[in-house]
Amino acid sequence: MGHDDISVVICCAGMGTRLGIGTTKALVKIAGKSIIQRQLEMLDEYDDIRVAVGYQAEKVIKEVKHIRKDVMFAFNNDYRKTGSGVSLSKTLIGARKYVVIMDGDLLINRDDFNRFMSEPQECISVCESHSSEPIYLAVSNNEVNEFLRSPSKYEWGCLSKVLSSRLIAGAQGIDEMLQPLLPLKAVPMRIRDLDTQDDYERMIQWYNTGMID
Fold this sequence. Notes:
This protein is α/β, with parallel strands linked by helices and 213 residues long.
């Protein structure tokens, strides 16, 4: 799988109300850099980047264009009423063979991310449960078999790679869009997401351990 086979979608249309700081989570700064800046720096070798925007769209676009000029934006103007699946669906027109889907609030270990991207097949990120409000996973035989609402040892890292031909646009959550595509290969990763203030404090601590590089 080459870079020319991959479209990368960053979903950051939501309001991030659970975090409670009045800004979209992609613009939260960790050690002086916004999360989306760190993501784009990690994606510097990929040339098809699509960002789903909604809440504070102008601020997100300004931040992204300051870093890269070649990013495509897809607008979810109904971000207050719709879920992440609508935002994702708006980015899929003309997508390449594989779509890498990632939330705009993720910090990811770079080595783990490169390993994930080099997987020659569909796959999904897995990490040990740590978040305040995780989506849990049923994992067996190195495969993710189901998204769970009840506690499990593993949670979804909100990073997935799937064939674009298998993605059906929908209004539900991204996990619900991916559920019919399971099982997918499980890729263990060092990754953190940001939903609540507790997540933010843990993310800072995690960053300070040097786990991002």
